[in-house]
Amino acid sequence: MSMKLAISGKGGTGKTTLAGVLAWVYANEGRKVLAVDADPDANLASALGFPRQMTESLTPLAETKELVEERTGVKPGSIGSLFVLNPRVDDIPDKYCVEHRGVKLLIAGTIKGGGTGCFCPENVLLKSLLRHLLLERDEVVIVDMEAGIEHLGRGTASGVDALIVVVEPGHRSLQTAASIRKLAGDLGINRVLVVGNKIRSPSDRKFILSQVPQREILGFISYSPLILQSDLEDRSPADVDPNVIKEVAEIRDRLENMIRGHQTS
């Protein structure tokens, strides 16, 4: 299965940890994996265990002025100018990604929001790229998104096998998840699933289950001082905590079983 996954959640919930370990799990099985960092606070490279020297000189695609101008016909920041609305993007993943331990990483950058020139060449390029990745690439694509899902449009959303929202025990996190679920529904994304992170006790699980229907729960990731330590050491959680690999693998298995069941029903 060529899975196409978008991962979102309130900042600090651990969505990048899930994205990184999930990519590692797939790659470790020999699957082709493309991880896309679409969060303005780009940390996916660290969660994947990329050596810093491989990524420190990379510029997010949305900020690569020469590329934006080449593909759209106008310079970034040009508002009101005529530009190409369907730029060529099929060659971008292989030209601009870096690869480590079987995972290709593409740092996309973020979509500009309303009031900051949302209909601009940078946004057109990013949305065209994401549409290509989700609809045409034959591989596992994991997109680490910000708390919103501005990168996804109606045409793109149809390519997402699942939108995974990472939550932690707490009302603010679950309120953000509810907002994301509504946005996803407006775009026609029907499979919105939840992963509970930073679980310290059975009561943490019980709290999340009291707020989210069990059919939408993919699984839980335990609170781990080792994951915190991996962040301090700029290493992948998968390199320091075998338990997180086990838990994320179980989450992946449940996800694929759900999708298979839907396809065969």
UniProtKB/TrEMBL annotation:
Q: Which Gene3D superfamilies match?
A: P-loop containing nucleotide triphosphate hydrolases
What species is this protein from? Candidatus Hakubella thermalkaliphila
MF terms in GO: ATP binding; ATP hydrolysis activity
Which PANTHER family does UniProt cross-reference here?
SEPTUM SITE-DETERMINING PROTEIN MIND HOMOLOG, CHLOROPLASTIC, SEPTUM SITE-DETERMINING PROTEIN MIND HOMOLOG, CHLOROPLASTIC-RELATED
What residues does the CobQ/CobB/MinD/ParA nucleotide binding domain cover? 6-233
Q: Which InterPro entries match?
A: CobQ/CobB/MinD/ParA_Nub-bd_dom, CooC, P-loop_NTPase, ParA/MinD_ATPase
Q: What is this protein called?
A: CO dehydrogenase maturation factor
Example GO biological process: negative regulation of cell division
Instruction: Extract one GO cellular component term from the record.
Output: cytoplasmic side of plasma membrane
The opening ranks of the lineage are: Bacteria, Bacillati, Actinomycetota, Actinomycetota incertae sedis, Candidatus Hakubellales
Does the UniProt entry include the keyword Transferase?
no
Which UniProt keywords are given for this protein, alphabetically ordered?
ATP-binding, Nucleotide-binding
- Keyword field contains Nucleotide-binding: yes
